[in-house]
Specification:
By secondary structure, the protein is mainly alpha-helical. The protein has a single domain, classed as Winged helix-like DNA-binding domain superfamily/Winged helix DNA-binding domain (Arc Repressor Mutant, subunit A, Orthogonal Bundle), CATH 1.10.10. The protein is 71% helix and 10% strand. The longest helix is centred in the first third of the chain and has 20 residues, at 10-29.
């Protein structure tokens, strides 16, 4: 009975998937010296140098305090710097941070290849889009 219940429980299944994909991502990103979340934050900064902390939180679906901790860690590693303009804290990548862009992109490609080898390209993409859509629906239920 419990086995059936667990298979039908979105909470349990989503957390199980999170643990599995997090392990895969951590393995692939080990070469970069960054966590996947730090890498995603850097990618957002690459795309928009001078991005605000608020915008980073919105893009990454993270709370402001989490974004602050991530930025502080990357600043400590010399990969980002911030500049305060009025009430905004704007985030920029350093030369050291920019030098990681190709490595980060390769890590993402390796991760995608790894799970696509199991799921298939189309199935992996379809699952990703469906999970994104469902996450949006549940997050904005009100």
């Amino acid at each position: 009975m419990l086995e059936i219940y667990l298979k039908e429980c979105l909470y349990f299944t989503a957390n199980r998937l999170s643990r599995v994909i997090t392990k895969m991502a951590d393995d692939e990103f080990a070469v970069s010296g960054l966590s996947p979340t730090h890498a995603f934050l850097l990618m957002a900064v690459y795309e928009k140098e001078g991005i605000s902390q608020k915008e980073l939180g919105e893009i990454l679906h993270l709370q402001p305090s989490t974004v602050t901790r991530l930025i502080e860690k990357l600043v400590g590693k010399g990969l980002l710097y911030s500049r305060v303009e009025g009430r905004l804290s704007l985030i920029y990548s350093t030369d050291k941070g920019k030098a990681l862009e190709d490595v980060i992109n390769q890590c993402w490609n390796n991760l995608r290849s790894r799970y696509s080898a199991v799921l298939g390209d189309k199935e992996g993409d379809d699952l990703t889009f469906q999970l994104y859509k469902v996450s949006d629906q549940l997050e904005h239920k009100e």
